UniProtKB/TrEMBL annotation:
InterPro entries: F-box-like_dom_sf (IPR036047), F-box_dom (IPR001810), Kelch-typ_b-propeller (IPR015915), Kelch_2 (IPR011498), SCF_F-box_component (IPR050796). Residues 3-49 form the F-box domain. Pfam families: F-box, Kelch_2. This is F-box domain-containing protein. It comes from the Eukaryota.
């Protein structure tokens, strides 16, 4: 078409035409023209490529399992669960932070990544796809914390930081809508290392033995003991939410604190009891237990696009359960890992979202 005709097209017509380009193609072109880049945030593009709801996990991109390790300074390996292939993700946290500076990935939610940057006493929340980032100063100085959970909301996101001092702990909640931290009373119970699991508007935690389920309301800052009963003979327990309606429990079954088997449960319709879904085959149990070596505090679990993932900080592989097929599998080992790396493996579900702004 004659370039002069393009130049005379009304702005809304041009936006409408270009919105039909594949999003991946358009993203590769945005650096060529400021006008192209601005079109990403036009009504036509937002309505066409944003998910149905702000907390929906649907995305026009592939979904990935992301591996974070302190030896990866400027990149993270990604396993593409759509194409079944390994890829690399270059890291650029913020215009004010060099990738060479020490950052630790803590939590991922709906395309947003949250890093801790101790040298600047800050958290960095960023969306690598939209190239947006925000530096969030720690709520207190000096600051030590046991866990941090990033939760996407309809208006942005919230950070829950659990910090303990002596026998008591404190909950700090950051709201991206008002750019402020709020401090709430903690609880006098020890939570496991996994952090909170978001389900039906609340964050769910499991304590260390004796196991109990606790709920934290991000709006009111209040804690409550959940009426949900846990199965007997648990050696360890982890919660997983599918991000929609279902809450799962993965636990080791045994005696004297030693697991002999691994089971998966789903919360029943009454909201108080668990229905057994599946158990891990014996040969896979043996491998998993040899990996953990009874150090269950290193075990953590998460949901990823129909997969229930079970990981261990001291082992680079991922055990996952495919819900649709009711089958267990091991993820292929990352080719970038060396035999010398023996701990510090942190896996996350990463589903890129263009309009999850930091």
């Amino acid at each position: 078409m004659d370039p002069e005709i393009w130049s005379r097209l009304p702005e809304d017509i041009l936006e409408r035409v270009l919105s039909f380009l594949p999003l991946k193609t358009f993203l590769s072109l945005r650096s060529t023209c400021k006008h192209f880049k601005s079109l990403l945030f036009s009504p036509s593009f937002i309505s066409k490529h944003s998910p149905a709801s702000p907390t929906s996990s649907s995305s026009p991109f592939s979904s990935f399992l992301l591996l974070s390790h302190h030896q990866f300074s400027c990149k993270c390996p990604l396993y593409d669960t759509v194409q079944n292939a390994w890829r690399n993700l270059p890291l650029s946290y913020s215009p004010t932070v060099s990738p060479a500076q020490s950052c630790s990935l803590l939590s991922v939610s709906h395309g947003r990544l949250c890093f801790s940057h101790p040298s600047s006493s800050s958290f960095i929340v960023c969306n690598l796809l939209s190239r947006s980032s925000r530096v969030v100063k720690y709520p207190k100085f000096p600051c030590s914390f046991e866990s941090l959970t990033l939760v996407s909301t309809s208006t942005g996101y919230k950070l829950l930081m659990m910090s303990s001092s002596g026998s008591s702990n404190t909950a700090f909640v950051y709201d991206s809508g008002i750019h402020l931290w709020q401090q709430f009373q903690g609880i006098n119970l020890i939570l496991n290392n996994q952090g909170g699991v978001f389900h039906e508007g609340k964050l769910y935690f499991i304590t260390t033995e004796p196991f109990h389920i606790l709920c934290f309301d991000l709006e009111t800052g209040s804690w409550e003991r959940s009426p949900i009963q846990l199965p007997n003979q648990l050696a360890f327990a982890r919660l997983v939410s599918d991000g929609d309606r279902k809450l799962y429990l993965i636990g080791g079954i045994g005696s004297d604190g030693i697991s002999r088997s691994l089971k998966l449960w789903e919360l029943s319709g009454d909201g108080e009891n668990w229905a057994e879904v599946e158990r891990l085959p014996e040969m896979m149990v043996k491998k998993f237990l040899s990996v953990c070596y009874h150090k269950y505090e290193h075990v953590y679990c998460f949901w990823h696009e129909g997969l229930l993932c079970v990981c261990c900080y001291t082992w680079p592989e991922v055990l996952y359960y495919k819900v649709s097929r009711k089958t267990w599998h091991w993820l292929p080992k990352c080719p970038l890992l060396t035999e010398k790396w023996s701990c510090g493996f942190k896996w996350f579900s990463f589903v890129p979202q263009l309009y999850s702004f930091a």
